[in-house]
Write the structure tokens for this entry.
Amino acid sequence: MPTADLLSGDVRPSSSSSSSRHPFRSSSSLSLSRPSASPSRPHSSLPRTDEQMAIAQQFAEIMQQNEMLAKENRLFDSFLQRHAHMLDDLDVSLLSGSPASATASASRRQPSRAMQDPTLTDLEKHSLSVDELEYRGAQLKALETKSRDDLTLLHSITAGIQQRIVDLRKETYEFQRDVVVGGCNARSGQLMAEKVVRYFEQSIAEKADLADKLRLKNKTMKAARAKMEAQVKQKEEQGDSLHSIDFHQLQIKNSQFNQKIKERNDELLKLKLTTGRTVAILNSLKKSLSDCLIASKRIRRDIKEKYAARERMKDELSRVSVELRDERVRNRQYKIQQSNPDMPQVMDYVLQKSEMYELEAAIRNWQRKVEIMEMAAKRARRVLDKQGQGGGGNSNGNGHGNGSSTIQRPISGGPTFAGYQPSTPTSPNNQTHFPRIR
């Protein structure tokens, strides 16, 4: 393309058959003129002239216009693809008419097409853009609805699979418990077929009952759905369906309600903060109350112990008072007895008791001595008996012809038996006496 054509921004439509038939397709099939190979750039060190800067600015503007036209072409192409059946029906209606009418219509359209500009007006572009926007919005809503339905279906399938896994685990456990473990014969160790058949029959019966319940529930839900659809249809027939003005009113009410919700949320946040502080204070007061209750219980227990101790002290005091009164009476009696001259003195009693203890000790000593002397006398008698039996043939030996011997009591200073010298206590008149032995 020459430089002058590039600067002028001339964009020529392509000469195709579709452009000759439909003005919409001519706009969509516009051939954008591209600039020819740029001339050799000057060296970077050379300064640019004003003409080159103007050319560069025009080139940038042309590229921006080309991008806008490419976007419009894509938009118009999408619109034509969606409405292609309408254009084809229009062509068929024109071809099905008589040749004369077709020629007349062609002759009538030929001057108008030559005179009409094939480009679209801004209003037509706006209408096409709004239509495409609504179409894309409807596509997005449909895709969102389909995605939501697919997600709900997948959630339902996942929940069903998880429930099925739980049921299978439960059935496996019950089969292991009732058939594998409980159905074994104790003697042979083999499974009993009766228990296996009974288990599966019971399982099939339970599943049949569950299927009946689900079938009844399905019928109930279908009836409720039919009822709701009938109500919706009745409302639509009565003209209660919402219009655009109703949607605008609902949007206004929705914004008002959102504002009120925001205000209530702020109030709720303030109340939550106040409630948090109140709860913290309440917890601290509860803790203090629990400490006070514990201290009160301890004090009450101490008071009860003190009361019990006071009662014990009272009882002990009363008992001591009675004992003191008795002791005082007894002491008074003792004093009266001591003041009587006929009564023996305490020292006399003590001296007599001491003398009694001394006499009892002497008696025990003398009893021991008597026992020793009796033993010595027995030994002496045995010795004399043995000597008498040895000299019994001499009848004149001691002047006793009967062969008996007598034992004389040893006198003081005479010989002793078995080396024992008895003590002979003497009185002041040199009279020998022995103590009385009880």
